[in-house]
User: What shape does this take?
Amino acid sequence: MIANEKIEVDQAKRQLDDIRKLAMQLAVKAGFAAPEVQMEGGRSPSPLAHSSIAQQAYFARRARERFFDADLFGEPVWDILLDLYVQMNSGRTVSITSACIASSVPPTTALRWITMLVQRGLVKRTSDPRDARRTFIELTKPALLKFNEYFEAVGNGMLKP
Assistant: This one.
Protein backbone atom coordinates (compact mmCIF):
# COMPACT_ATOMS: atom_id res chain seq x y z
CA MET A 1 0.00 0.00 0.00
CA ILE A 2 1.30 3.44 -0.86
CA ALA A 3 2.01 5.74 2.11
CA ASN A 4 -0.68 8.25 1.06
CA GLU A 5 -3.29 5.48 0.82
CA LYS A 6 -2.37 4.24 4.31
CA ILE A 7 -2.79 7.76 5.70
CA GLU A 8 -6.20 8.04 4.00
CA VAL A 9 -7.28 4.64 5.36
CA ASP A 10 -6.18 5.61 8.88
CA GLN A 11 -8.07 8.90 8.61
CA ALA A 12 -11.17 7.08 7.38
CA LYS A 13 -10.96 4.65 10.32
CA ARG A 14 -10.72 7.53 12.80
CA GLN A 15 -13.66 9.27 11.16
CA LEU A 16 -15.67 6.06 11.28
CA ASP A 17 -14.91 5.67 15.00
CA ASP A 18 -16.02 9.30 15.56
CA ILE A 19 -19.25 8.63 13.65
CA ARG A 20 -19.90 5.48 15.72
CA LYS A 21 -19.39 7.42 18.95
CA LEU A 22 -21.72 10.18 17.78
CA ALA A 23 -24.34 7.66 16.67
CA MET A 24 -24.16 5.95 20.05
CA GLN A 25 -24.56 9.27 21.87
CA LEU A 26 -27.53 10.20 19.71
CA ALA A 27 -29.13 6.79 20.21
CA VAL A 28 -28.84 7.08 23.98
CA LYS A 29 -30.19 10.64 24.01
CA ALA A 30 -33.09 9.65 21.75
CA GLY A 31 -34.02 6.77 24.03
CA PHE A 32 -33.03 4.02 21.62
CA ALA A 33 -30.46 1.35 22.25
CA ALA A 34 -27.27 1.81 20.32
CA PRO A 35 -27.03 -0.74 17.50
CA GLU A 36 -23.70 -2.18 18.57
CA VAL A 37 -22.07 -2.29 21.94
CA GLN A 38 -18.82 -4.10 21.16
CA MET A 39 -16.50 -2.03 19.05
CA GLU A 40 -14.36 -3.60 16.34
CA GLY A 41 -10.91 -4.86 17.16
CA GLY A 42 -11.94 -6.24 20.55
CA ARG A 43 -11.69 -2.88 22.27
CA SER A 44 -13.75 -2.45 25.39
CA PRO A 45 -17.09 -0.74 25.01
CA SER A 46 -17.25 2.88 26.11
CA PRO A 47 -19.42 4.03 29.03
CA LEU A 48 -21.99 5.03 26.40
CA ALA A 49 -22.03 1.46 25.11
CA HIS A 50 -22.43 0.22 28.67
CA SER A 51 -25.21 2.75 29.07
CA SER A 52 -26.88 1.29 26.01
CA ILE A 53 -26.80 -2.18 27.56
CA ALA A 54 -28.27 -0.76 30.77
CA GLN A 55 -30.98 1.04 28.83
CA GLN A 56 -31.84 -2.13 26.91
CA ALA A 57 -32.13 -4.01 30.21
CA TYR A 58 -34.40 -1.32 31.67
CA PHE A 59 -36.61 -1.18 28.56
CA ALA A 60 -36.84 -4.98 28.49
CA ARG A 61 -38.01 -4.94 32.10
CA ARG A 62 -40.70 -2.37 31.28
CA ALA A 63 -41.75 -4.31 28.17
CA ARG A 64 -42.49 -7.41 30.27
CA GLU A 65 -45.38 -5.50 31.79
CA ARG A 66 -47.14 -5.49 28.43
CA PHE A 67 -47.22 -9.28 28.47
CA PHE A 68 -47.33 -10.24 32.16
CA ASP A 69 -48.83 -8.72 35.28
CA ALA A 70 -46.38 -6.20 36.70
CA ASP A 71 -46.76 -7.57 40.22
CA LEU A 72 -45.01 -10.79 39.12
CA PHE A 73 -41.72 -8.94 38.89
CA GLY A 74 -40.15 -6.76 41.51
CA GLU A 75 -36.65 -5.43 41.46
CA PRO A 76 -37.05 -1.73 42.23
CA VAL A 77 -33.41 -1.41 43.30
CA TRP A 78 -32.16 -2.72 39.96
CA ASP A 79 -34.54 -0.40 38.10
CA ILE A 80 -33.29 2.59 40.10
CA LEU A 81 -29.64 1.66 39.57
CA LEU A 82 -30.09 1.05 35.83
CA ASP A 83 -31.85 4.39 35.41
CA LEU A 84 -29.17 6.22 37.40
CA TYR A 85 -26.43 4.62 35.30
CA VAL A 86 -28.09 5.57 32.02
CA GLN A 87 -28.88 9.11 33.15
CA MET A 88 -25.38 9.72 34.55
CA ASN A 89 -23.77 8.54 31.30
CA SER A 90 -26.06 10.91 29.43
CA GLY A 91 -24.99 13.81 31.64
CA ARG A 92 -28.39 14.18 33.29
CA THR A 93 -29.10 14.56 36.98
CA VAL A 94 -31.77 12.43 38.62
CA SER A 95 -34.13 13.75 41.25
CA ILE A 96 -35.46 11.53 44.02
CA THR A 97 -38.89 11.83 42.41
CA SER A 98 -37.57 10.65 39.05
CA ALA A 99 -35.80 7.71 40.69
CA CYS A 100 -39.05 6.74 42.43
CA ILE A 101 -40.85 6.75 39.09
CA ALA A 102 -38.07 4.65 37.49
CA SER A 103 -38.49 2.04 40.22
CA SER A 104 -42.10 1.28 39.21
CA VAL A 105 -43.15 0.86 42.82
CA PRO A 106 -45.02 3.19 45.17
CA PRO A 107 -42.95 6.22 46.23
CA THR A 108 -42.75 5.14 49.88
CA THR A 109 -41.29 1.79 48.84
CA ALA A 110 -38.85 3.45 46.44
CA LEU A 111 -37.74 5.88 49.15
CA ARG A 112 -36.97 2.98 51.51
CA TRP A 113 -34.85 1.35 48.81
CA ILE A 114 -33.05 4.62 48.05
CA THR A 115 -32.25 5.01 51.74
CA MET A 116 -30.82 1.47 51.76
CA LEU A 117 -28.73 2.25 48.64
CA VAL A 118 -27.33 5.34 50.37
CA GLN A 119 -26.53 3.31 53.50
CA ARG A 120 -24.69 0.70 51.40
CA GLY A 121 -22.63 3.37 49.67
CA LEU A 122 -24.00 2.78 46.17
CA VAL A 123 -25.89 6.07 45.88
CA LYS A 124 -25.35 9.53 47.30
CA ARG A 125 -27.80 12.36 47.77
CA THR A 126 -27.07 15.98 46.86
CA SER A 127 -29.25 19.00 47.40
CA ASP A 128 -30.37 21.08 44.45
CA PRO A 129 -28.53 24.39 44.87
CA ARG A 130 -31.38 26.24 43.15
CA ASP A 131 -34.34 24.59 44.90
CA ALA A 132 -34.02 23.43 48.51
CA ARG A 133 -37.13 21.28 48.09
CA ARG A 134 -35.44 19.01 45.56
CA THR A 135 -32.76 16.40 46.13
CA PHE A 136 -30.74 14.59 43.50
CA ILE A 137 -29.21 11.15 43.71
CA GLU A 138 -26.32 9.68 41.80
CA LEU A 139 -24.21 6.57 41.77
CA THR A 140 -21.10 6.71 43.92
CA LYS A 141 -17.71 6.10 42.29
CA PRO A 142 -17.50 2.53 43.68
CA ALA A 143 -20.99 1.77 42.31
CA LEU A 144 -20.08 3.26 38.95
CA LEU A 145 -16.95 1.07 38.82
CA LYS A 146 -19.03 -2.00 39.66
CA PHE A 147 -21.49 -1.15 36.89
CA ASN A 148 -18.68 -0.67 34.38
CA GLU A 149 -17.21 -4.05 35.34
CA TYR A 150 -20.63 -5.69 35.17
CA PHE A 151 -21.49 -4.27 31.75
CA GLU A 152 -18.00 -5.06 30.49
CA ALA A 153 -18.70 -8.69 31.40
CA VAL A 154 -22.18 -8.55 29.83
CA GLY A 155 -20.83 -6.95 26.66
CA ASN A 156 -18.16 -9.63 26.36
CA GLY A 157 -20.60 -12.47 27.04
CA MET A 158 -18.68 -13.46 30.16
CA LEU A 159 -21.63 -13.89 32.52
CA LYS A 160 -22.25 -17.53 33.20
CA PRO A 161 -23.77 -19.25 36.22
Summary: Helices lie at 3-30, 47-67, 76-89, 96-103, 107-119, 141-155.
